[in-house]
Design brief:
The chain is mostly helical. 75% of the residues lie in helices and 0% in strands.
């Protein structure tokens, strides 16, 4: 079980992965290792099958999510994301975040769902652009620069969850 997630699914170790290829590879591994196939096997074989199925599920979840896949690629290539200790971000990115936070606070205070929708679209667009840029860096082997992109993606992901939660709060108030 020492192979990495890409090796497990016999996929290239790249950020650019087709969802259909990943799904097909996952189902192939699942079909080979599913515990039901080992229903009449001994306890040790059942345990190994369960470990492989669990490993396949974890690998699939990691590779399916672009942020997790990017972080995993950095890790595989020896780059520590330093998510706890390195919070430095480019000034333009920080300014954008401050503007979005202010718009978020204003929209939430006013109960303005339309403003939250505009903000959500802007965040989705920024995330899409950042995923593309970070993915290109990863696939070109620039893992140190990609790590900065991964940290930006983590921020965008969290902020996107905050906006989604705000929609829920507004719905609950109605």
């Amino acid at each position: 079980m020492m192979q990495n997630h890409f090796q497990l699914f016999n996929l290239p170790q790249r950020f650019a992965l087709g969802a259909a290829a990943l799904d097909a590879a996952y189902h192939e591994v699942q079909n080979q290792t599913h515990p039901d196939r080992f229903a009449h096997a001994g306890a040790a074989e059942k345990r190994v099958a369960m470990q492989w199925a669990t490993r396949a599920n974890e690998a699939y979840q990691t590779l399916k999510n672009p942020l997790s896949r990017a972080a995993y690629l950095c890790e595989l290539n020896g780059v520590d994301l330093q998510t706890e200790s390195n919070t430095a971000m480019p000034g333009a990115f920080l300014m954008q975040q401050m503007e979005w936070r202010e718009a978020f606070d204003d929209a939430l205070a006013a109960g303005d769902a339309a403003a939250l929708e505009r903000l959500e679209r802007a965040i989705r667009g920024a995330r899409r652009d950042e995923e593309a840029a970070t993915g290109a860096l990863l696939d070109n082997g620039d893992f140190d620069a990609a790590a900065q992109g991964v940290r930006r993606l983590m921020f965008l992901d969290k902020f996107g969850r905050d906006v989604a939660a705000a929609f829920e709060r507004l719905a609950d108030q109605e």
